[in-house]
Amino acid sequence: MSYRTLVDTALLAEHLSDPDWVVIDCRHDLLKPEAGRIAYAKSHIAGARFMHLDQDLAGPRTGANGRHPLPQPEALAARLGAAGIDANKQVVAYDAQESVNASRVWWLLRWLGHDAVAVLDGGWHKWMAEERPYSAEIPRPAATRFSARPDNAWVDVGYVLSHLRQPDMLVLDARSPARYRGEAEPIDPVAGRIPGSANRFYRENLAEQCCFKPAAHLRAEFEALLAGRPPRQVVHSCGSGVSTCHNMLAMEIAGLGGSLLYPGSWSEWCADPARPVERG
What we know:
Layout: E1 6-7, H1 9-14, E2 21-25, H2 35-42, E3 44-45, E4 49-50, H3 73-82, E5 90-94, H4 100-111, E6 117-120, H5 123-129, E7 134-135, H6 157-162, E8 170-173, H7 177-181, E9 198-199, H8 215-226, E10 234-237, H9 244-253, E11 260-261, H10 265-269
Parallel strand pairs: 1-6, 2-4, 2-5, 5-6, 8-9, 8-10, 10-11
Antiparallel strand pairs: 3-7
């Protein structure tokens, strides 16, 4: 049996010694880019491999393509293969950031055609609160071959521009309400949002211990936002295409799969002053 959305801490603990399960630690701090790697070196879920958001889970930045552009499929496939991941592995990703970065791992593997990937519900903090096994030992996995089969589950800035304010596209912004309204912008050089977008702060997907809300609750909340639109008409955005994967995972949990990622998100959009900006 493969797991395609969430795995709870008890189930992962049962499979820590399972050679067909691979755990990915993707803790990261946007303001301190090496903090995740340092934390991993001190302690991590036993056997977990580390992947860096900037260096492993994103491609090169040009200044115009956002802060976390998609990696080249071949480069990511090589990194996954080096971590011992192939078509037979169940992958579980976790972080200490409310599953934001873990959701990015989840989306990236699905994008490359690997469906047996899930997020650890509650992440690192829940794991430690339950006194589950952890280690400072760095694993040395046997390299294998990961075959990438990228799909078309994302759109570029041209698509968003051409469908702006059209009834067949709803841009769903995962940033905080203050950033969405343009009242605060701690990271990107311009405050505001893509015109016509709606706000779904990713934290609204969570309940106690940073676990995702039940599927029925998520479905009711997202259906209210979609207002009859099919999921394929939803384009997800955030600051740089990371936290928005949290909303995509929540929709998948809710049985509303098929929505699209705009990887460049606000950091790409606001890089060109000719693109319209909405505030308030």
